[in-house]
Specification:
It is a single chain. The protein is of the alpha+beta class and 375 residues long. It folds into three domains: 106 residues, Beta-Lactamase (2-Layer Sandwich); 65 residues; 155 residues, 2-Layer Sandwich (Heat Shock Protein 90), CATH 3.30.565.10. The longest helix is centred in the middle third of the chain and has 22 residues. The N and C termini lie far apart (67 Å).
Length: 375
């Protein structure tokens, strides 16, 4: 005898609203264009109207070549998409015409599967300050710390040594009950010397020694250090792409980068249900424009560190990678500044997204091709 079928629920089911695709595109802050194989504009959303300072009726059926210079990198991206049918992205591109002025943007071009021979172009505009932050990996901030480090090394450490020596001599002649004061002087001078030593890393201008590095071995080392020390209370999840090529980088410095990021994540997660997710992925077509030249470096390898903490306060996000910016009561604010410097030295970029219960730092790095050179 077969069992009776379960009664069907009579509770009202939530209805899914029917969204208009064009209305959704108009709600985006990014300029979006639909291009056909000849370069004609088939659609432009409202943000694109503002970007090109023209109405949609004016833009539609015009050629993109009428709006941008012929040597714009956007055309090569569109050609690549049309021939390879894959999504491509490029960071740090300048789009400039007398009509629209100069704009610092990130570009993404994707094929439209439902309409072969067309491509969707997304233009994400960034302010100059944000462009410097994200494209150049906050190198300007690192340079300011470099100058300060050199000054401190020469002008502060020597007097501190004299102060510490004098305190040690005083300790021999003062009453026992006053020796806590001389010990305090010694401890504080040691603490300041330690801070200067950390800052001297920024002043190191020696060429970076780079070689093929297995990023998963780096992350496994970081994971092992974390779970046996500062992140004992955290649950780790790993989402790795096992087919990734090697990174063209310095193993010790990459360990330092991800150790800093994981330590920050471990300090941000809640006491209950704390979780950190380590992920790796390969992104085809991600490139970074080199300012002042026509060169572009491919950054296909992406490593992400995600935590479920409260998120980064809105007011410090624009300055997060600057020196001495920190949310920690006892933090020095040098950790992320050093991370930015190391990633910049590798020719990569670092980005972050933050909201309550989900903060993600993404590091994009060059890989090693079959000839042993970096991509």
């Amino acid at each position: 005898m077969t069992g009776a079928a379960a009664p069907r629920s009579t509770a009202p089911q939530p209805s899914v609203p029917a969204f208009d695709g064009m209305a959704l595109l108009n709600a985006l802050n990014d300029a979006v264009l639909l291009i056909d194989g000849s370069g004609a504009l088939l659609y432009a959303n409202q943000a694109a109207e503002q970007f090109f300072q023209a109405s949609a009726s004016y833009l539609q059926n015009r050629r993109l070549a009428d709006l941008l210079p012929a040597d714009s990198p956007l055309f090569s991206l569109i050609e690549q998409v049309m021939t390879q049918s894959s999504v491509v992205s490029e960071y740090g591109v300048t789009l400039e015409t007398p009509r629209i002025g100069a704009h610092f943007v990130n570009l993404q071009v994707a094929p439209v599967a439902e309409h072969p021979g067309t491509a969707l172009v997304s233009i994400h505009e960034q302010s100059i300050a944000r462009q410097i932050d994200r494209q150049l990996t906050h190198r300007n901030a690192a340079r300011s710390v470099t100058a300060m480090a050199a000054l401190l090394a020469h002008e502060v450490k020597n007097p501190l040594s004299g102060i510490r020596g004098a305190a040690q001599l005083l300790e021999q002649s003062v009453p026992t009950e006053d020796r806590t004061l001389t010990q305090l002087i010694c401890d504080e001078t040691d603490r300041i010397c330690g801070l200067v030593d950390r800052m001297e890393v920024f002043a190191d201008k020696r060429p970076l020694t780079r070689e093929p590095v297995n990023i998963h071995q780096v992350l496994e080392h970081v994971h092992r250090v974390a779970r046996t020390g500062f992140a004992r209370h955290v649950r780790f999840r790993e989402n790795y792409d096992p087919s990734l090529p090697a990174v063209y980088g310095n193993r010790d410095q990459l360990i330092q980068v991800f150790l800093n990021l994981v330590k920050n994540a471990a300090e941000a997660v809640p006491e209950q249900d704390a979780e950190i997710v380590l992920s790796t992925a390969y992104r085809h077509g991600v490139r970074l424009a080199i300012p002042g030249s026509d060169s572009r470096v491919a950054l296909p390898l992406v490593v992400s560190v995600q935590d479920n903490g409260e998120g980064i306060p809105e007011d410090i996000r624009p300055h997060l990678f600057d020196a001495f910016v920190t949310t920690k009561p006892k933090g020095s604010g040098l950790g992320l500044a050093l991370v930015a410097k190391i990633i910049g030295d590798h020719g990569g970029i670092i980005e972050f997204d933050s909201e309550p219960r989900r903060t993600v730092f993404r590091v994009m790095l060059p890989t090693v091709d079959t000839t042993g050179e970096h991509s």
